[in-house]
Amino acid sequence: MNRLPLPALKYCGSGMLVRIQHPDPAWYPRLFGILTLLIVLWPMLVYSEFKPWILFEAQSLAASWHFLASFAPPAHSGEFLHLLLVATWQTVAVATAGLTLALLGAIPLTLLAAESLSVSQIETGRMRLAGRLVRQAARWLLILLRSVPELVWALLFVRIVGLGPTAGVLAIALTYSGMLGKVYAEILDSSESQSTQVLLKNGASRLAALFYGSLPEAAPELISYTTYRWECAIRGSVVMGFVGAGGLGQRMDESLKMLAGSEVASMLIIFVLLVGAADRVSTLLRSRLD
Amino acid sequence: MMRTAISRQTALLLLGLLLLIAASFYSLVLKWGELFSADALRSGLEFVRGFSPPELAWSFLSRILDATLETFSMSALSTLIAVVFGVVLALPASRRLGAVPYAVIRFLLNVLRSIPELVWASILLIAAGLGPFAGTLALAAHTTGVLGRLFADALENLPPAPEASLRINGASPLAAFFYAALPQAMPQLLSYTLYRWENNIRAAAVLGVVGAGGLGQMLKYHLSLFQMPQAATVIIAMLAMVALVDAISFWLRRSLTR
Lengths: 290, 258
Hints:
The structure holds two protein chains of two kinds.
Chain A: E1 8-11, E2 17-20, H1 27-47, H2 58-69, H3 78-113, H4 120-124, H5 129-147, H6 150-161, H7 165-190, H8 194-201, H9 206-241, H10 247-257, H11 261-287
Chain B: H1 2-27, H2 32-36, H3 38-49, H4 58-93, H5 99-114, H6 117-128, H7 132-156, H8 161-168, H9 173-207, H10 214-224, H11 228-257
Helix pairs in contact in B: 4-5, 4-7, 4-9, 4-11, 5-7, 6-7, 7-9, 8-9, 9-10, 9-11, 10-11
C-alpha cells in the first residue's frame, strides 16, 4: 500500500490525532485534479464570455420562443419543396464533384509520398536524395492543403470566382486531396508490402508494383476511407453554403437571416435525413467490402 | 455462379457511382472558363499577392492573440461540456436504463450529431446573441451528439464481468458504474475526447464566419473589406493554433492513455 500524500487528520474525543483514510485510495489525486481543472477553466470561461444566464433573460427567451414557435408547422408548400430539392441536389453534387477532383489530385500525390513504392530504398536500404526531397515536398504540399479549413478555402474562392457552387467544389477538392493523399499514403505504407517489394525487386515498374502488389492488398481500406470522406464532404458542402457556395447551406442562411422558422425547420429535417442517408450508403458500401 | 452474381452487383454499383459523378458535374454550373481565363488568372494572382506581407503591427498582433485565446477557450470549454453531457447521455444510450430511454436518447444524439457546428451556431445566435458564447454552445451541442454516441458504443462493448461482480456483491448501480465500467472504458473515452478536441479547434477557428467570435470572425471581417495582409495573418494564426493543439493532444494522448 503506498502512502497517501495528504492524509486526512481528525481530532478525536480522546485527544489523539488519528489518521483517517478515505475509503477510496484515489480520492486525493482526484480532488487535486478537479481543483487544477477549475483553476485552468476560469480564464477560459472569461474568454469565451460564458454567461449561461443570458439565455434566460426575458428578452432572449422571448426571441427564442418566438423563433421556435414559428418552426411548427415546417414549410411545405410545393414551390418551397421544389426549391429545397434543387438545393439538396446541389449540395450532394458539390460534394461528389469536389471529391472526384480531390481524387484526381490525391492519387498522384500519394504515389509521390508513399514510402513503400520507393525503388532506391530497395537497393541500398535508404532513399536517394532526390527521391527523399520529392517525397518530402509532396508531404508538405499535402499538409498545407489539409491544414487550411475548407471553409477558409471557400471564403477565398468566393472572392476569386464569385458566389456559387464553383467555390465549394474547389474548396472541397483542395482540402480533401490533402486528407485523402495523406491517409492513402499511410494505408499503402502500413499494409503488407511484401508482394510490392518482390515485384519492385524483380524489376517491375512502380505503377505495376502499385497495381499488382499494393492496391489489391489495400483496396478495401482505401475505398472505405473514401466513402467516409464523401459523407464528410456532404456535411462540408452544406456548411460552405453559409459563405455563399450555393446549396442547402445558402438557403438556410437566407431563411435564418429572415427568421423564417418554418423554412428552417423543414431544412433541418431534410438535413438530418440527408446526413442519415449518406451514412447509410457509406455503411452499405463498406459492408460490401468485408 | 456466386462470383458472377457478386461482380454484377459490383458493376451496377460502379455504374451508379459513375452516373452520380457525371450528373454532379453536368448539373452544376461550374465556371471553369472564368476560373482559367487570363483575366481571372490575373486577378487571382493579384489576390494572392495581396496576402504578402502579412500584417505584423503590434496592435494587430495583440488582437490576433486575443482572438486566438478566445477560439482556444471555445474549443476546450465546449469539449468539456460535451464530455459531461456525453457521459450522462451515454448511460441511457448504452441500454442501462431500459428500451424506451435507449431509443429516445439515441435519436436525440443522432439529431445533435447530424447538424454541423456552423448550423448550430447560426441557430443559437438567436438565443445567445453574437459572440463566442453562441459558438461554445454550438460546438458543445454537436460534440455532445458525437461523443454521446461514441461513449455509449464504448460502454456497450465493455466486458460485463467486473461490473456484474460488484453488483452481485451488493454495490449500488452508480458505484458499480464508477468503479468498474468507467475505469475500464476510460482510456477509450479519453482518446475519443482528445480526437474531438482536435476537431473542435478546427471548427472553432471557422465558426466566427457566422458571427460566433474568435479568429473566424476576424477573417470574415478583413476578407470582406479586402484587407488581405490582415487576413493572411489570421490564417497563419489559425494554422499555428491548430498545429499547437495537435501537439498538445499528441502529448496528452501519450501520457494519459499510454
